[in-house]
Design a protein that fits this description.
Layout: H1 2-17, H2 40-51, H3 58-70, H4 77-89, H5 93-106, H6 111-129, H7 134-137
Length: about 150
């Protein structure tokens, strides 16, 4: 027992007295700031080209729309038009309507100013593709809502 205690004590003393040098092979890089900044036009062109690809499938369309909805912006009408054409190419009517609905939701408190402008700009595309707006489909009003007890 005494032998094991002295062995442990000797190891502790060796480690505490010997200088330890640690070399890190990983370089520290700050990736949050200072990167290339994309202009608004480049951003719009990138997403428009993404949705205009002929080989795009439903999953990629949803991924692009989800990325757009995750950003702090309202998509430009030309991006919305390209996305609607992509939805029509893969024959996903419901996704097209939901994307218009998501764009309306992205307008936030300025929905009365921004959303009518978006609808005005994309209306020819909606007519061409045969897509109705959520308001035309009645999605802006609850279907099975109960009457308020205070208004009876």
């Amino acid at each position: 027992m005494l032998r094991s205690v002295t062995g442990n004590l000797a190891n502790v003393l060796k480690r505490s007295l010997a200088p330890t040098v640690r070399v890190s092979a990983i370089a520290q890089v700050r990736r949050a700031h200072g990167g290339p900044v994309e202009s608004d036009e480049e951003f719009d062109c990138r997403y428009e080209a993404f949705f205009n690809r002929t080989d795009i499938d439903g999953w990629e369309i949803r991924k692009g729309m989800n990325d757009l909805c995750g950003m702090d912006l309202v998509p430009d009408p030309k991006i919305i038009k390209a996305a609607l054409h992509a939805c029509r190419r893969v024959n996903d009517y419901a996704l097209a309507v939901r994307f218009i609905e998501a764009c309306k939701d992205k307008c936030g408190p300025k929905v009365g100013e921004i959303y009518p402008y978006i609808i005005q700009e994309i209306k020819p595309t909606l007519t061409e593709l045969g897509i109705d707006t959520p308001e035309e489909l009645g999605y802006d009003k609850p279907e099975l809502a109960l009457e308020s007890v205070y208004e009876m």
